[in-house]
Amino acid sequence: MMKRLFIALLTFVCASQAERSGFDLDWKFVLGDPDGAEQVRFDDAGWRTLDVPHDWSIEGEYHKNNPMGGTAGYLPAGIGWYRKTIPVPGDWKGRHVEIAFDGVYMNSTVWANGKKLGTRPYGWSSFSYDISDVVQSADSITFAVRVDNEKQPSARWYTGSGIYAHTWIDVKQKVHVPADGLFVRTDGGRVELDAEIRNTTGAMQKIDVEVSIVDPEGKVVASQRKSVMAGNDAVQVSGFRFEVSAPRRWDLDTPNLYKASVVLKSGNIPFDQAEVRFGFRDIEWKPQTGMWLNGKNVKLRGVCNHQDAGALGAAVPDKILRFRIEQLKTMGCNAIRTAHNPQTPVFYDICDEVGMLVMDEIFDGWKKKAAHDYGRYHFNDWWERDVAGWIKRDRNHPSVVIYSVGNETHGKVGKDIVALCHTLDPTRPVTSGHSGSEYMDVLGVNGASESVGWFDRLETDRVFIGTENTHTWQVRGFYRTKTWYRDGGPEVKKAVHEIPDLTEVEVFSHDWTDESGRSHRKQVFNSSYDNATVRTTARHNIEQLRDIPNFAGTFRWTGHDYIGEASYVHGGWPFKAFMGGAIDLANFEKDLYYLYQSQWTDEPMVHILPHWTHPTLKEGTKIPVWVYSNCSEVELFLNGTSIGTQAPGRAWNEMQCQWMVPWAPGELKAVAIQGGRAVAEKTIRSADAPSRIALSIDGEPLAAEGKDLVQVRVTSTDEKGEMYPYGENRTFFKVLGPGRLRALDNGSPIDVEKHFGVDSRIAFHGLTRAYVESTGEPGGIALVASCILGEKKQVSSNKVSIDVQQIPLRGSVPESKVEIFYTTDQSEPTARSTPYTGAFPVKLGTTVKAMVMVDGKPFQTLEERFAMNEGFVWNSKPTASNPGGEQAEDAALSGARVSAKGKGFHGRGFIDFGHNRGAYAEWYQENDGDAGQAELTIRYSGNAKGKPGRNVKLTVNGQTVQAELLLPNTKDWGSDWQTLTVGIPIKRGANTIRLTTVESGGMYIDEISVR
């Protein structure tokens, strides 16, 4: 009987081998939770048709009341369904078929023809389901996927919602190699390979396994063949050993990729095949010197990055993901930490290809950190399956050099996680972001490693990595000469490094709003000089990494800005994003990018900051001009006259060349000199009022055919073509040909307009981003961008210009006649309105409307308002350096409310407990430093007649610190505010601080602060 079964198998398998097919196209989607949507006959005709990867949250509207809140960036969440029906090809019958998902966020449940295949809680896992039985019994399959991201916040940052990564159909034979069934290791020229063989035929099978090692040119350089007996429903692991002479190494500059090909045969007849890429690279970890790659000591010059990419959300197209990774490499970065979850599989493929090292991280917490996260609901039941799937998925990537298993969390389970990692992959060490450190192979420490004296106290028994080091914040194009600290400077926190102010009195005053426009004292933009920080500067971190031998690597927080963490860090709405990246949300580089490039790259470069357009500054005002360069000398010229030559230093505060230059309009030019000759130069000029826009493409152009995406940069310029760095006018877009706008962005952390389904965007500090995608049909594609330009507050000019520009994206689009008509009286423009022939003056309070006509037909309608209550603020009072504490409105309340019937309070109000006993206010407090004692300061007001004050119960992380903490009387209620400071324990990562009334009511509470 067994013989007949085996012969039948061979007769079938000769016809075809393993196939993997993309399954991304033409899914049906609905936002909501309809009953019966898993059933085949469910009517989805009214659902939207789309391709995955897809993130429905980023398509929605930002709103301050969305349950994601500031934690996840104020976007909508909820429940969504996907459905897709396909015919079953005849050659699938009798084979092993799976549907595979690279990533679904989160709590996904999948059905095939009404049969529940399974549920996956963790939103960052890749997984698959066997659908062979369904294939065998049906001529068509209806897949249904329910995604539940309703409970919010489900993480401490923006996650996206939906099938945000690729989907696949895998068709194999009944005897096959599973998708994660190969494991390759190298040592010198030696290759070790294990191959899992899965047999689902129901009978023992004799299988020949042929393994070939293929070089980057496709030449077989080694091969072996073995015979194995694969048991019924069993997995057989076969060990192979090879020696490859003089292999080409996988290295940062030469990421050579080999391929291991495994073919299953019966005799000489192949019937299943699996392949995996790998690289020959040798890695050693030494406590005294860190990581050694192929015999060379390599410092990990890293960044942390989340999954999202601004306007594209979590469903980042492969092309943009590659652009971002290559962008970081051009900065000089050589490593990325996947904070705080695995990235999609294509991320690791790209890192393999470009030569980028990866710290592969799986978890944020091993228990609850956000209100409704995986740690709270699913970690205990699922961590082993998720860790196993993650390790087996990623362990063949040469880019992955170390695993990280947690971030600012704790628990004995850390020991078990590390042990499982070692079992599944004994070739890589395990670390964490200061979590269960006693169990880790490599000590990873977050913000605490930035503290004064840290390296003086560091033990040298293990390799050390700064897993989040350093934290500096900056907004592209924004400048302050006074140093800013998140938690106060050295006079408040001894662990903070002293960073001198650049000037005694603040030079710049341009801001996003004035003091009355801030609902929270944390709502400040941070300076693009390297002088806004938590504990130290990026320059100091660079110096330490370079000069301290046992400092193996640093991963700054972060490479790119990301959506979320907007309330705790930046004071909340309208702040939607975290602005610690060297690159902003729209992939525009900040000045910090060029600091790293000057220290981490060798190709001659030079960069100047700040810009040289300062219409409100008095001439002669001395501006600190910084120049970053990796050359031996830099000479600076103002309006053609040299103002000196400087050599960039090695000390942290000398890495930049600095001149105090008296402000005068005109031109600044920096010339970098190496070996006595000029090798690079950069020129910046003062710009007049904005009057034009310039369009250009960042990264690769649009593909000549098929579906693709391109990112277009829109630059606000003056009439001479000089960038206007305060540009904030609205650009209107329209795509010609078989293309469409995918999303619009500008990199602003406070712009809360929709990204999706819109056709216009304001500029932010002179730049706007348009993502345009082709639909797959043939034909030329172009983008038309139109803009009414001028200074919104008329700081230096009352002139208004209108510009229309077109950029070809693919092929050619016929030239057309363009006409513009405008109005200034609120009326809608028509062909009978004033024709635009050149710039014209308007008074403040004017709304300009324009109609663009193409070949005599209306094409676009534009609008822009010029008034004192529009746009950026000029000559506002500079913001205080200390942003203050956590406000009343930041707290979670029970039996209490926020009131504003008083005076002298901070923020929008204070907490009134009424006469309620057991009412409480609870604040979330993130600690990226060491665990230990901290000082809690409570700002309060109230006078309990006949009593010395009122008591509250103080708890931290659910533990009572003081059962009755007396808040002494102040002079009166709601106008006289006092503070009380008390010591509290605080752990790493997430902390909750609760004040609970223990009698009939409590004092008014305005804010708390933790130092």
Please explain how this structure is put together.
There is one protein chain. The protein is mostly beta strands. Helices cover 10% and strands 39% of the residues. The protein has eleven helices and 64 strands. The strands form 16 sheets. Strands 26-25-24-23-22-31-28-27 form an eight-stranded parallel β-sheet, with helices on one face. A six-stranded antiparallel β-sheet has the order 3-2-4-9-6-7, with no helix packed on it. Strands 45-43-47-48-51 form a five-stranded antiparallel β-sheet, with no helix packed on it. Strand 17 and strand 18 (269-278) form a beta hairpin. Helix 4 (318-331) packs across helix 5 (345-354) and helix 7 (379-394) packs parallel to helix 8. It is globular. It starts with a helix and ends with a strand.
